[in-house]
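Reagents: none. Just compute today. 14_3_3 domain-containing protein.
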Amino acid sequence: MLDSDHVLWLKPGRASTRILLKLLYSSGQLPASAKPYKVVILKECAEDEHRDLNYDLFQVAILTERETRRIKTCYERLVPTLRLAILHHPIDEKKEGLKHKLRNYCEEFIELVDHRIAPHFWVAAPIKGHFLRLKADYLRYLFEIHPKCGAYQVRAHNAYTEAKAFFTHSHMTKTVEWFRLRLNYAALLYLDGFPTAAMFICQQLLKSNKNKLMDQTMEQRIRRNVEFFKRACLG
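Predicted 3D structure written out:
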């Protein structure tokens, strides 16, 4: 049959379906209507990409801009896909295996940032800021799936503080990445049980958007978060 993206889908469950999905993924053509296979295929493809990346990184002493782009692309596909699979997987036994994978990938990424990206002056400030923001986000993800682990909570707060200091020092507080950083920190505050503080941060972001630094999609997301946090405060 043809889906809304005019892609021919084979009968679910056939081996050729999986191959087709992987080909579409590699070319960036995998549509949203690929569910329920989408998350599974995304995870498999991202893990294949991660394996190739690890092999290549093992052979280089200094990361170039090309490698940092590959790291960014790889982990931005891999980690959110695993997180999504964990949040929506109905079987607890499967979830535990996925949580273990997510923990390993996040810690691996954090080690890359701490030892091979953040300390080096040749990495451009916007790239470094992006990686520091991702590091904080991934620690927040780990706190999400391990809410009783205080270590992840503390590390996430420290990482957001580190990223905020870097953005401030590098004069990057009027960038889209800064808005993402603060928005995601608000999410951590909500997880901590402080919806009022989270709402305040989002309201400040909206006030500081006089120069229209963020696009309409992000502005709408922040406004929805303000309403969500407001309801949480009242509840």
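Residues 173-234 form one domain.
Action item: order primers for follow-up constructs.
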